[in-house]
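FW: tagging you since you asked about this chain on Friday. Here's the raw sequence from the shared folder, copied in full. Didn't touch anything.
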Amino acid sequence: MKLLIIEDSSPLRRSLVVGFNNLGITTDEASNGTDGLSLALNNPYDIIILDLMLPGIDGMEILKQLRQSAIQTRVIILSANSQHQDRIDGLLQGADDYLTKPFAFDELHARVIAISRRGIINNFTNTITINGFILDSNTMSLRYEANDIDLTPNEFKIIEYLFNHQNQVMSATMISDNIANNFDYISKNTIEAHISTIRKKIKSHAITATFPLKNKRGFGYYIES
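HL: got it, structure written out here
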């Protein structure tokens, strides 16, 4: 499990980091809303622990922007404000839980465990940008600047797989296993033909760009980031 803790109180933030790390839970931390929002938008987390009163961007605005960006990571709000309406507002904005300060660490840990049992929401790598090429897994598209590069479903799956494994050499067999259905097999020659077509399409749409697809002869293909 990986948590993001956005809390401006240094003593509280550090105590939470130490407490969760001692339990074997990985944490990232931010002391202000601007840094916290950036981390939350650009990294995958299982749960975000979010203070409301933050410098830069307040917690409610962070929550709002996350949900508007289709980031559905579980969020536990921490707040010194125990007013009934504030709890309602937080939950309506998309929070999964609301805990008032002061609180016992054991209670927060229990809430983290309870929320994690609802299942992990995957927000991983909706978009990846390399050398100006933008791969968007939500819209199943590859773009360079304002140009959409028209890929077939298998061509897109190949590029998506390689983009998600940057700097790792993937053999034709590994690529085939990833993009084929359970009862299908895509030959090495077919993979090579797909990649050749992808290169041609990209060259026609992005003449001045350098697409980071590399071939390690005898081993496979990789995206150089």
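FW: The longest strand covers residues 74-79.
HL: agreed, and The helical segments are 10-22, 33-42, 59-68, 84-92, 105-116, 153-163, 172-179, 188-205.
FW: great, closing this out.
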